């Protein structure tokens, strides 16, 4: 395998590079300059730059991780979301089509594509109609439709991974597990008098997977997934945000008071979103391996170390 990871210096990109380093020749793209010879600075708003890179590297697989990743920030950056996630994907797919249509492409979407799930469905499968409720979810649903279109009309070897919440060490602030872990670590490390942490809605339920398992899933899709298909990447198990908080609080050596901050409560919050992983398990034999509690402990301990 000769792999190109777009957004290789992002949260998932770094873990995927580490996972693949003994399995493939790995190259990557970034918006910034890096000294590594295998990482190239390009703009996905330029189809010509992507074509030139494809001709130079000649990858067998492309994992398209580059793009806009924050649901919260997407409300204030709607145009940037469309440019980063939709326009960038079009340019990538066009570049592959023009250079070598046999290249396997994994486009990465999100559970936010599903949005409001019909009543009575406990675990979301890939056939449920999409109903996104935020700009990020809208952009990723467009990516999934582009993947299907380029497979159907151009015969591109493309698969769309619809990933649910993934967490782990190295994730930036702005995501629930790392925000909680950071606040708790600050209180423990700095021994402040104010042992209060502010949180948003604790009753929503999500499907959390360790980022290492996500990287493993992308590899399995790259090797064994079926072209033209969409796959949920998830555990099939739901955990409430309250559960997440309580696990992280159990690592604290001091008592912490939890306060709900109305400004942190999203008006468009989806109450429950748990995925059905049966399709990816059946087609690729992938299964998540990491335990939620250990993953949360790793996140917390990294913040303690960093502080």
Explained architecture:
The protein has 307 residues and is of the alpha/beta class. The protein has 2 domains: 2-168 and 208-236 and 275-289, Rossmann fold (3-Layer(aba) Sandwich), CATH 3.40.50.720; 176-203 and 239-270 and 299-306, Alpha-Beta Complex (UDP-galactose 4-epimerase, domain 1). It is built from 10 helices and 14 strands. It has helices at residues 11-20, 47-57, 71-74, 78-99, 135-154, 176-190, 211-224, 241-249, 278-284, 292-306, and strands spanning 2-6, 25-30, 39-41, 61-64, 104-108, 158-163, 165-167, 196-199, 205-206, 208-210, 230-233, 239-240, 257-260, 272-273. The strands form 4 sheets. It has a 7-stranded parallel β-sheet, with helices on both faces. It has a 3-stranded mixed β-sheet with strand order 12-9-14. Helix 1 (11-20) links the parallel strand 1 (2-6) and strand 2. Helix 4 (78-99) packs parallel to helix 5. The longest helix has 22 residues, at 78-99. The radius of gyration is 19 Å and the shape is globular. The chain starts with a strand and ends with a helix. The mean pLDDT is 95. Residues 4-298 form the NAD(P)-binding domain. This is GDP-mannose 4,6 dehydratase.
Helix/strand/pairing class, anyone? alpha/beta
Spans of at least 5 consecutive residues whose pLDDT stays below 50 are none
Number of helices: 10
* Helix and strand run: EHEEHEHHEHEEHEEEHEEHEEHH
Mean pLDDT: 95
Strand count, sense and barrel status of the largest sheet are:
7 strands, parallel
The CATH topology of the largest domain is Rossmann fold
CATH class of the largest domain: Alpha Beta
Question: Strand-residue fraction?
Answer: 15-25%
User: How big is the Rg?
Assistant: 19 Å
Q: How many beta-strand segments?
A: 14
Order of strands across the main sheet: 3-2-1-4-5-6-11
What is the domain tally?
A: 2
CATH superfamily of the largest domain: NAD(P)-binding Rossmann-like Domain
- How much helicity do the residues have? 40-55%
CATH architectural arrangement of the largest domain = 3-Layer(aba) Sandwich
